[in-house]
Amino acid sequence: MPATQQQACPPQLRTGGIAVPQDPSAEGYAKYFYNFWRPVTAIRAGDTDGNPETAPDPAWIGVVTTPNHPEYPAAHGCFSGASTETLNYLFGTDEVRLSVDSNVVGIVNPVRTYERLSDALQEVLDARIYGGMHYRNSTRVGAKLGGQVSRFTTRHFLRPAKHHGHEMNDSTYVDEK
Fold first, then answer.
1. Domain that holds residue 85
2. Which residues, at least 6 apart from 165, have a Cβ–Cβ distance to it below 8 Å?
3. In the chain, how many domains are there?
């Protein structure tokens, strides 16, 4: 993060990205271990799943372009689960009001506001399903995996700099390498 952004960013958010870089290795390993097909492949090849009741729809396409790697677990679920879990740890609560904006052309509502971190996470997970890229189970498992990576990382690499009960400031949490 550039220094100008760090200065405008609370210290809790500067350390919030610590667990997130650890997550892609867990998610990537799982994707290629399970090698699960995406909805676009399953729907188009519905007659090859061993279920005589399933019919294919060779023309089906998702709303969003499907990435060309295995489906399970959902990477955005992992990343968002790690992010929200880390912020929950740092703030000590899920009740954190936040707004996120986008400069993507054509978005009807470019600013999204949430009352809780879990609300933002749920919207990310739902969007991956609505876009046609993931199944619900994969988004849930991805978020759980990301949360587990965050809990391990925050518990092992962040430590309170002062005893609990003291007011939090820039030195409350330190990176322990």
1. 8-161
2. none
3. 1
